[in-house]
Amino acid sequence: MITAPVAPKSPIRLSQLTRGQSARLDSTTLDSGEGEALRAMGLRPECELKVCKMGEPCIVTIGSKAGGCRIALAKRLADHLHVRPC
Amino acid sequence: MSEPTTTASEPTPSASKPAIPRTVALIGNPNVGKTTLFNTLAGRRQKTANFPGTTQDAHIATIDSPEGVLTLVDLPGIYSLTLDQSESVICRGVLEGNTAPEGWRARPPEAVMLVLDGTNLLRNLRLAGEVLARRLPSVVVVSMADAASRRGIHIDADRLEALLGVPVVVVSSKTKQGVNEILPTLARARASEFEFPADAAALELWADGVYADVASSHDERDEDDRLTDRLDRAFTHPVVGVVLFAAIMTGLFWVIFKLASVPMDMIDTLFASLGGFVAQTLPAGPIRDLLTDGVIAGVGGTVIFLPQIVLLFFLIAVLEQTGYLARAAFVIDRLLRPFGLPGHAFVPLLSAHACAIPAIMSARAVPDRRDRLATILVIPFMSCSARIPVYVLLTQILFPGSSTKQALAFTMCYAIGIAAGLLSAILARGTLLRGKSRPMALELPRYQLPSLVGATKQALGRGWLFVRKAGTVILAISVVLWWLGAYPGSEPSPIADGLREQAAVVAETQPTQADELLAQAEMEDTKYAARRTFLGRIGATAQPIFAPMGADRQLTVGILASFAAREVFVSTMAVQIAGTNDTEDEGVLAAVSGATRDDGSLVFTPATSWAMLVFFVLAIQCLPTLVVTAKEAGGWKWAGLQFAWMSSLAYIAATLVYQILTRIA
């Protein structure tokens, strides 16, 4: 059976995800200093992240489950990160 | 980069040993086990020094190894060399040879030891690319080998060495795997000949390629992660998190407040005995007085803060190493943000209730400069343990015999201090320190058992830094204040002369009464001399300034003398009124309560006592705190501002209280 290609999900705010949901980082609307700092911490475009806790703070793990790191973000920052759920 | 400007002998490599770099900078991401590795390599021979004009520390150690002598400098943890954050600016400066810790000569390091976290190699490779692009002789240390292995991550060290172009050693500080190879590997440090991408996106792609080539892992979620998730949810929960935080901080506060009192009492006794010994050994005169009342009292007044400083930093290091502190910062951020203070400010503010000095030093943990300055400025509003003797005196005078009312007044003093501090923070953030607060983003380190040895080293390093930086200034000013309070000397008081004559008359018939008269004469001499010292004269001149808050000449001297340290207020009042500084004597406290002014009216009326209580809650009255503020905030202007603001507020509030209460009465 031939299935239609699945359209990529449109970006939503990181703060709109639910606990346990995975997503890829699409873009940010932070100022360049804050954006660069988060990028150096591992929140780089297309990185895979998984939500461990929502709210204040929002806690995500980044990267492979065997490696990677765990980052806590103020909700104000999580509102400025746009992700595509996967 | 780093060679002591004062040390004449530079380590020289032995001809029979492989050449080892003499100065090595230790660089890496935060939480990669860099400091643990430093402690393992450095042993006990390490120092802590500031980078000029910052609150960033460098830990420095001289290591005498079979490969030669080298100086290892542990730099602040950074995620990237290119960020506009103080840690990154310092590391850039060190690698370029423009920055060095205070007391060290700025020059590029002979080698770089780059520490990469084996459990998070992909992200760490970005910093590796940035550092290796600088073409300094380097070695790469892949840390946390035990944790990586537990998570099923295998790193091919030979392949990594081939791709980075510098020697690689894989280590675990916990199991000691590879630790002995580090120093021999340093002898092989070399500059990579490879090209590394310059921009972030290209560097990330390069890191992806290297990671795919050197690391393999089975992608399974382990039990550690599930436990970490649960603990994180509890520790950052809006209710449970706050309750846990309150419990942990109560324990921390109790330890600082109670346990520190044991060594503090010992130090107090030791310096008192030393003073007594010098007083007995040397002939009476100005040199003996200078040594006992100036130098020994000044050194004692500095060293006495050490137990609280060392204990506070030990406990903070323990909490930090467990991974808890990063979680706690988020919990309390919600409560403090409305006042313009960050979550990181809570531990400093809480510990300020024991002593403002270690609290101000611990404000280094506040990452944003404006947040840190606001925290430092308001810390002295918290009622420290040195205020307690003053609160005890004044509440006893206000409510004699009613311990419930005394306790309520005590609590009110603490509440007024906290309220004034938080309101001052709002004011500071709305004016001088206006600006958007940096929202928090923190990497949450793994939960782990703390290293008590590492925490002890950190705490002792901080204690030594305090003695070296603040102790010298405090000692000098203590000597000046002693001189103002002791000179010029005075002749015996006319009243004392009369008492001595009476004693001589009754000496044979009533020896007990004669002794009492002589003791009374001595007290009269002390009171008489206190009036004639420079401080006494300044007090008499300055009295009109403090008159609106109900202060007479004696109270003015008490206020001025307590500028050095507020607890001096009680002993100064005792000297002036009762002619002794024995403040433990209940008779003396009764005498102070019933003391009269020159016109015969009571010194401590209810209005004056309330005004003094409010004054001592709000006024800074602690010279060492001002010295530490100047050092930590980066200039005397901040200490000046703190002094001016707190003194003005204290003066205005005390005057209002006095004026309102005298009118009501």
Question: Could you walk me through the main structural features you see in this protein, from its secondary elements to its overall organization?
Answer:
The complex is a heterodimer of chains A (86) and B (665). Chain A is an alpha+beta fold and 86 residues long. Chain A has a single domain (12-85), classed as Roll (SH3 type barrels), CATH 2.30.30. Chain A is 16% helix and 35% strand. Chain A contains two helices and six strands. In chain A, a hairpin with a 6-residue loop joins strand 4 (58-62) and strand 5 (69-73). The longest helix of chain A is centred in the middle third of the chain and has 10 residues, at 32-41. The model of chain A has no long low-confidence stretch (mean pLDDT 86). With 665 residues, chain B is of the alpha/beta class. Among the domains of chain B are: 23-220, Rossmann fold (3-Layer(aba) Sandwich), CATH 3.40.50.300; 490-531. In chain B, helix 10 runs antiparallel to helix 11 (286-303), helix 12 runs parallel beside helix 15 (356-362) and helix 21 packs across helix 24. The interface between A and B is large, with 33 and 45 residues.
Key terms for this structure?
heterodimer; A: 86 residues; alpha+beta; SH3 type barrels; six-stranded antiparallel beta sheet; globular; B: 665 residues; alpha/beta; Rossmann fold; seven-stranded mixed beta sheet; 10 strands
Global structural class of chain B: alpha/beta
- Helix/strand order of chain A, N-terminal first: EEHEEEHE
Molecular shape of chain B: elongated
Structure class of chain A? alpha+beta
Helical region count of chain B?
28
What percent strand of chain A?
A: 25-35%
Count interface residues per chain for the largest interface.
A-B, 33 and 45 residues
Tell me the radius of gyration of chain A.
13 Å
Oligomeric state: heterodimer
Roughly what percent helix of chain B?
Answer: 55-70%
Per DSSP E runs of 2 or more residues, the count of β-strands of chain B stands at 10
| CATH level-two architecture of chain A | Roll
Q: What is the CATH homology-level superfamily of the domain at 23-220 in chain B?
A: P-loop containing nucleotide triphosphate hydrolases
What is the CATH C-level name of the domain at 23-220 in chain B?
Alpha Beta
Assigned CATH class of chain A: Mainly Beta
